[in-house]
Specification:
The protein has three helices and three strands. The chain has 75 residues and is of the alpha+beta class. The protein has one domain. Strands 2-1-3 form a three-stranded antiparallel beta sheet. Strand 1 and strand 2 form a beta hairpin.
Length: 75
Protein backbone atom coordinates (compact mmCIF):
# COMPACT_ATOMS: atom_id res chain seq x y z
CA UNK A 1 0.00 0.00 0.00
CA UNK A 2 1.47 3.41 -0.96
CA UNK A 3 2.23 5.85 1.82
CA UNK A 4 -0.15 8.81 1.99
CA UNK A 5 1.63 12.16 2.31
CA UNK A 6 1.03 14.72 5.04
CA UNK A 7 0.04 17.21 2.31
CA UNK A 8 -2.77 14.89 1.22
CA UNK A 9 -4.16 14.70 4.76
CA UNK A 10 -3.74 18.46 5.29
CA UNK A 11 -5.65 19.19 2.07
CA UNK A 12 -8.37 16.68 2.93
CA UNK A 13 -8.79 18.24 6.38
CA UNK A 14 -8.91 21.70 4.79
CA UNK A 15 -11.73 20.53 2.48
CA UNK A 16 -13.72 19.33 5.49
CA UNK A 17 -13.18 22.59 7.37
CA UNK A 18 -14.21 24.67 4.32
CA UNK A 19 -17.00 22.41 3.07
CA UNK A 20 -19.69 25.10 3.32
CA UNK A 21 -17.62 27.41 1.10
CA UNK A 22 -17.08 24.59 -1.37
CA UNK A 23 -20.86 23.95 -1.40
CA UNK A 24 -21.49 27.53 -2.49
CA UNK A 25 -18.90 27.45 -5.28
CA UNK A 26 -19.04 23.83 -6.48
CA UNK A 27 -22.47 22.27 -5.80
CA UNK A 28 -22.74 18.65 -6.96
CA UNK A 29 -19.20 18.61 -8.34
CA UNK A 30 -16.07 16.58 -7.75
CA UNK A 31 -13.39 18.94 -6.44
CA UNK A 32 -9.62 18.43 -6.37
CA UNK A 33 -7.86 20.11 -3.45
CA UNK A 34 -4.14 20.97 -3.57
CA UNK A 35 -2.26 23.28 -1.22
CA UNK A 36 -5.50 24.09 0.60
CA UNK A 37 -7.35 25.36 -2.46
CA UNK A 38 -9.67 23.96 -5.11
CA UNK A 39 -7.66 23.45 -8.30
CA UNK A 40 -10.31 21.82 -10.48
CA UNK A 41 -13.94 20.77 -10.33
CA UNK A 42 -15.91 18.56 -12.67
CA UNK A 43 -18.94 16.37 -13.23
CA UNK A 44 -16.95 13.13 -13.07
CA UNK A 45 -14.31 11.94 -10.66
CA UNK A 46 -12.18 10.58 -13.52
CA UNK A 47 -12.06 13.91 -15.38
CA UNK A 48 -11.34 15.73 -12.13
CA UNK A 49 -8.44 13.39 -11.34
CA UNK A 50 -6.93 13.71 -14.82
CA UNK A 51 -7.22 17.50 -15.01
CA UNK A 52 -5.95 18.04 -11.45
CA UNK A 53 -2.94 15.87 -12.22
CA UNK A 54 -2.21 17.93 -15.37
CA UNK A 55 -2.63 21.26 -13.56
CA UNK A 56 -0.54 20.40 -10.50
CA UNK A 57 1.97 17.87 -11.78
CA UNK A 58 1.12 15.67 -8.79
CA UNK A 59 0.14 12.04 -8.99
CA UNK A 60 -3.58 11.29 -8.67
CA UNK A 61 -2.78 9.38 -5.48
CA UNK A 62 -1.50 12.61 -3.91
CA UNK A 63 -4.60 14.73 -4.65
CA UNK A 64 -7.71 14.51 -2.47
CA UNK A 65 -10.88 14.50 -4.57
CA UNK A 66 -14.11 15.21 -2.71
CA UNK A 67 -17.71 15.20 -3.89
CA UNK A 68 -19.45 18.39 -2.79
CA UNK A 69 -23.20 17.90 -2.45
CA UNK A 70 -25.54 20.83 -2.84
CA UNK A 71 -27.50 19.66 0.20
CA UNK A 72 -30.78 19.09 -1.65
CA UNK A 73 -30.53 15.32 -2.04
CA UNK A 74 -32.98 12.92 -0.42
CA UNK A 75 -31.73 9.45 0.44
Amino acid sequence: MPKVSKNFWDDLLWSEEHYSELMEKFPDKWVAIVDKKAVFSGESIKTTEIEAEKITGRSRNEIPIVFVECGAHIY
